[in-house]
Specification:
Layout lengths: L5 H6 L11 H17 L5 H37 L2
């Protein structure tokens, strides 16, 4: 399904959008997308809030560490160069 013939790619006949000129192919594509989305395990509200909090804390920790390293390097270079 995802593979096209080598001849079609070599011709340069418009690319991705030309694959969907036939309406039945469009419908089939979106039907398959919908079926794949049904297989996804979606988190519930409490899991989503927990995962969001973990990401925000991790980003905060990384930001503080980068700020500390940046401040240390700035101090070291300003001392070394005499600014």
């Amino acid at each position: 399904m995802a593979l096209t013939k080598k001849d079609d790619r070599a011709k340069g006949n418009g690319g991705f959008l030309n694959r969907f000129k036939n309406p039945s192919r469009r419908v089939n594509y979106f039907r398959e997308v919908w079926l794949e989305l049904k297989k996804v395990h979606w988190p519930n509200r409490s899991q989503l809030l927990t995962y969001t909090a973990v990401v925000l804390v991790a980003v905060g920790i990384c930001a503080v560490l980068i700020w500390i390293v940046d401040s240390g390097l700035t101090y070291a270079l300003s001392t070394l160069l005499g600014y």
